[in-house]
Amino acid sequence: MASLPIQRYTPEEYLEIERKAEFKSEYYAGEMFAMAGTSREHATIVFNLAGELRNILRGRPCEGFANDMRVQVGAAYVYPDIIVVCDEQEYADTREDILLNPSIVIEVLSPSTEAYDRGLKFEQYRQIESLREYVLVGQDTMRIELFERQDDGRWLMSEVKGPENLLHLPSIDAHIRLADIYERIEFKSRPPQIRERNP
Fold it and tell me: Domain 38-181: what homologous superfamily?
């Protein structure tokens, strides 16, 4: 049986639909992708980290957004989990719901989106000249990966593990303890692997 043709939309059609929709969709290469619901762990980590950043940014020129601010990357539109903007905010139009110049983008990894966040989505984000740091936060393990843009355009990756270690965001000189990011998260223990012995 033949598969149904993929519905394609122009960016203008996507925005017209998206701005009226009751649920969020991202847009890439003419296709709309409905965003899946989040887990309790995902929502808790976003809430914790956004709260820490709010305290750090209080009284400073930077501003943060969580979950609902759309970002345009070329002809793609995405919804990062958390954004920090330190330059004068630039928007695609007067609606001010499509940000063009994030300084920091943070994504909390989920099983359904991890490959996209690490691959194509990061490839898109790297096109944003204002972006200084891209952060991937593990949901099933206490592990955070930080990608920093270097002066020569390369991206340097480092990782942080353990509750007393700190996530350092150099562009805003922020240090956040992993124990605070993962507060109220109980990691589900995995059953031990049983290896068969050769006779």
Answer: tt1808, chain A (3.90.1570.10)
